[in-house]
Amino acid sequence: MARRPMNTFGNLLRAILLLSVCLVRPVAAQPLGIACCDADRLYDTIPSLFYDDTDYTPQGRLRWNTTRYRRKIACMAALVDSLALPIIALQNVENETVVRDISAACTGDYIYLHRTLNTLDGMDFALLYYGDLFFPHYVEPGRRYLYVEGTLRRPVGRKPGRRFRTDTLGLLLCGEARTIGRTIGELRDEHPGTRLVVMGRLPEHELEKYGLQDALARAEQAGRGNVRSTSGWRMRDRIAVDTLLRIVAGDVYIRRFLLDPAETRPLATYDRRRSVGGTSRALPIYVYLE
Questions:
Q1: Cβ-based neighbours of 277, under 8 Å, separated by 6 or more
Q2: What are the strands of the beta sheet with 32-42, ordered from one edge?
Q3: Which of 55, 84, 97, 109, CA to CA, is 20 to 30 A from 32?
Q4: How many angstroms separate the Cα of 81 from the Cα of each of 102, 129, 195?
Q5: Strand order in the sheet with 195-200
Q6: pLDDT of the chain along its 290 residues, tens only?
């Protein structure tokens, strides 16, 4: 039987087309990691003139003194360094002094952003971030929320430093689920085109009507949560992501040093009035985005 001649020109053409597709295909930016941590009412030791923090003073009910404060700062810094993510939101910190002390105790090169929210308990939100990747240009504190909008600069490909992709990212930190709908609606109107990432106390349902997707839905369906009660693990805090962003991974951050060695639960700072020296009664949550 006669041998069929090779179609050399056709093979060459297909190879050129395949090479051209590979060359023009956009290289994805490296995934962005964002975490949200509850500092579990991290006060300094100085009495406030504007709200009642007497429990968290050396003469108060909890005997909150410099030694305990420094230990809590060291715990929070160890958590931030363990996460090692470029953007970390902090909940329930009293003031800028507390945030500055956490940042100074970290080995990572973090810049901090803090705003006073004028809440009845004195608790604020703050942001730790890498200054070479995220550049805030708008900050709006409100009732139990903090909104930070900035330019995100992410390395493209496997060799950081050569090419970067920039996006406008809006970070919304929330402490009250019932007001989140109105807040998001106003932000959508005032900042159209900004890709939102919402963290903190969020409603369990109806996030999609705000153009958001629950980054921790799979983790919750698998039975994981970031707080422990008598009925089991519960996802008290959430991260919701703009539908224009792709979720690579989202979960609860669990490490042995965050857990009570005697029980399977987060190790809090206090067990009722007894100091146990833990980090928080709530585990951190995180998401990776493309």
A1: 68, 71, 72, 75, 267, 269
A2: 111-115, 124-129, 87-93, 32-42, 285-289, 247-252
A3: 97
A4: 11, 12, 27
A5: 134-142, 145-155, 164-174, 195-200, 238-242, 212-214
A6: 444 444 554 554 454 444 443 344 445 678 999 999 999 999 999 999 999 999 999 999 999 999 999 999 999 999 999 999 999 999 999 999 999 999 999 999 999 999 999 899 999 999 999 999 999 999 999 989 999 999 999 888 766 556 888 999 999 999 999 888 899 999 999 999 899 999 999 988 888 988 999 999 999 999 999 999 989 999 999 999 999 999 999 999 999 999 999 888 999 999 989 999 999 999 999 999 99
Which tokens hold the place of 151? 């330019």
Q: Does the predicted TM-score (pTM) go above 0.85? A: yes
Q: ∠ at Cα 148 (147, 151), nearest 5°?
A: 150
Q: Round to whole Å and give the CA distance between 225 and 34.
A: 17
The four Cα atoms 17, 22, 25, 29 give a dihedral, to 10 degrees, of 180
Q: Residue 102: which of 117, 118, 121, 83 has the closest Cα?
A: 83
Check if the beta carbon of residue 223 is closer than 8 Å to that of residue 211.
no
Sequence-separated (6 or more) residues with CB below 8 Å from residue 200: 36, 89, 91, 125, 145, 173, 174, 175, 237, 238
How far apart CA 179 and CA 282 sit, in angstroms, is 22
The distance from CA 215 to its chain's CA centroid, rounded to whole angstroms, is 11
Question: Structure tokens of 76?
Answer: 């929070």
Helix (H, G, I), strand (E, B) or coil at 282: coil
Label the pairing between strands 32-42 and 87-93.
Answer: parallel
CA distance 113 to 125: 9
